[in-house]
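Standup, Tuesday
Yesterday: got the pipeline producing structure tokens again.
Today: sanity-check two examples.
Blockers: none.

Example 1:
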Amino acid sequence: MTNPMRNVTPGGSSGGAATLALIVSFTGILLLTQSLFIVPAGQVAVVTTLGKVSGGARRPGLNFKIPFAQSTYPFNVQTQVRPEEFESLTKDLQVISATATVKYALKPSEAGRVFRTISYNDREIYNRIIKPSLLKALKSVFSKYELVTIASSWSDISTIVERTVAEEISQFDYVDIQGLDLTGLEIAEEYRAAIEQKQIAEQQLLKAQTEVKIAEQEAKRYDTLNRSLDNQVLYKLFLDKWDGQTQVVPSLPGDGGNNTPVIVGGRRN
């Protein structure tokens, strides 16, 4: 009979053990790479477990997740700058055009809520959160003012718009508005000329009013000075300036109480 042990290849058991070790090592490395992930600076990561948001947003650095069961979605939390061209009607139904440049940043703590209710990524934050609120606030503010006021008080209007946009977006509490700049105001040329003429007229009126006030103050000052110059004051002023040589004759009795001296001649030689 043939001995079956003779067909066993020497070293076969050691080869199987090496293969098993290789498989175990590969599996371990795979699990490790699937368990660890890095969140770059300026981002946070939303982690989902079987499609459901799990825990808070992960901060920058090395993080751990359950292999195959959990997935990660990055969200940028750095300041974003987006210009938005818009048109709006004024209170007197005139069309204006301008550019609103908004600076905003996603709140890191709100990344999970954005993922659940708005979008799986941060690219939709502007279109779905910022832009609708921005346009609503712009039209709300400009509809309250006439074109002349908007053009002549552009800086003040910009401040009001910035505050209104921040208040509108704060209702959702997803992002921080860090600034808003309004530039490039465009209006019809005929209205621009009318506005410039009105501004010139207002400046001329202000100048005239200022000159009138100055004249009134001067008149009051001279009136006050005139009332204070009685005979005694005049005599005192005379004595302060008298050179001690000019001939002075006292007033005569019976002149109505006027004791002012009379100058009758020049210096004596």
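Example 2:
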Amino acid sequence: MDDEARWATARRLLHDETLKPEDRLAGLLLHLYAQWPAAISRLTVDHIEEADGTVRVHLGAVPVELPAPVAELALRQAETRRSHAVLGRTDSTWLFPGGQPGRPISAWAMGERLRKLGIRLAEARSTALFQLATELPAAVLTRTLGIDITVAVKWQRAAAGDWAAYAAEISRRAVEGRSQPG
């Protein structure tokens, strides 16, 4: 998927009010944060936090701050989610409740919902990971997105991001900053 197509899909998910808000949020988590449907389906309301006007989502060990339009969708989903079960409709802690009471939507069902929006799952995730790997060190990808470090390093290499040079540059700046006369 080229970058232009990725951003066109992201804009559609952000602004197309004819799409279900939960599908829009799930699609954005895939397109912007490289999350597989299985990971998205396992999110609970506790993965969304709001403090001091900032909304964050916990995808890995370190939460990711959501930009305003995505944050609004996440908060709306956390507030209005409902189980799709015919019997025993109850509120659930799952951000994306499934058809069985107390269970999340299945990864397969989440993937189907996204495919019905015209989203190619593997292609969208690969494009997102490639872009993120050009911008962030592998360790940051691991901590924020919850992906394995070996996967993050492979994507970083594929994206030609050499973060050893990045770390050396940050270290060099720190040393120069201390040796500058004050």
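Quick observation on example 2: The radius of gyration is 19 Å. The longest helix spans residues 163-179.
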